[in-house]
Amino acid sequence: MGKHISVLLQETIDLLDIKADGIYVDCTLGRAGTSGEILKRIPNGHLYSFDVDDEAIRESSEKLSKIGSNYTIIRSNFRHLRKELENLGVTKVDGLTIDLGVSSPQFDEGDRGFSYKEEARLDMRMDTSRAFSAHDIVNTYSLNDLARIFREYGEDQDAYQVAKLIVKERAVAPIDTTTQLVDIIKRAKPKKSLLKKGHPAKQIFQALRIETNDELGALKEALDTMVDLIAPNGVVAIISFHSLEDRIVKKKFVSLSKIEGDRHSLAVRPEDVEVAPFINLTSKPIEASDEELEFNHRSHCAKLRGIRKKGE
Ligand SMILES: C[S@@+](CC[C@H](N)C(=O)[O-])C[C@H]1O[C@@H](n2cnc3c(N)ncnc32)[C@H](O)[C@@H]1O
């Protein structure tokens, strides 16, 4: 079973510039690679770590308890970040990190339905307490909605053809398993697509995972709420693995660090120039080093961006 190797871990820790007595939030606990490194550096602080995956929480609790006791694991979607922290009396934090997507063990647990390589019921829920799964999408979404998510979230050139065959096949019998879906994808795609590098089902599966877990919606909500949550000099560091995610993070970070109004325009009074609340720490995203690319296949499309709130 694949162990999860954290991506851009040292770079994330460096960016967070951790204070020994700080309050930190890891929105994506996973196998506690990042959380563990943060906890080691905050003997007098506190760490709050979010995840919705029960197995990730069970394994990580064990790991973190060996490092210290000054942490709290919150079983919740990080989109509810502010409310969950407020319930615990936390209104300001010194650093926050998100390492988006799925962890290697989630892919390897064949029965979760994340992998096109394993026979399983179509599922793909990170949070198994929720009812909505990839099975609902494949068997109930309209032709146009299927084609849209395959095109937008999967960036798959054959989105429409795949959606069309899904709709035709499910009229005969429900599409229940990953293998059934892979077979439909292979039959729907033209020969030239099947000859391309990479598994023909990869992008369709990625699109279904993003839609099942509303991954982009959760990211946008967290980005909106973190603005007030971050204390002066606090840092936000986010790793994304998909161009749509990276675009959302980049746009938000640029808008928070851009000075509104033109300081030099005679028509604008200096007091009307709105000062940006954050400083962008990564005008270009940080990507994995050649060394990391060699031993961690997940690092290939990873992009790390950071911003720091200005001091008071
Ligand atoms: C890539 S892994 C994080 C790995 C972690 N940084 C480490 O070093 O082990 C992502 C984790 O975040 C969780 N996750 C993804 N989206 C989430 C969300 N919106 N709310 C809470 N947890 C989420 C997944 O269940 C998974 O365990």
Give an overview in words.
With 312 residues, this protein is of the alpha/beta class. The protein folds into two domains: 9-105 and 215-309, 3-Layer(aba) Sandwich (Rossmann fold); 128-212, DNA polymerase, domain 1 (Orthogonal Bundle). The protein contains 14 helices and seven strands. It has a seven-stranded mixed sheet with strand order 3-2-1-4-5-7-6, sandwiched between helices. Helix 7 runs antiparallel to helix 8 (159-172), helix 7 (143-152) crosses helix 11 (202-212) and helix 8 packs across helix 9. The radius of gyration is 21 Å and the shape is globular. It starts with 8 loop residues before the first helix and ends with a strand. The model has no long low-confidence stretch (mean pLDDT 93). The chain binds S-adenosylmethionine. S-adenosylmethionine binds next to helix 2 and strand 2.
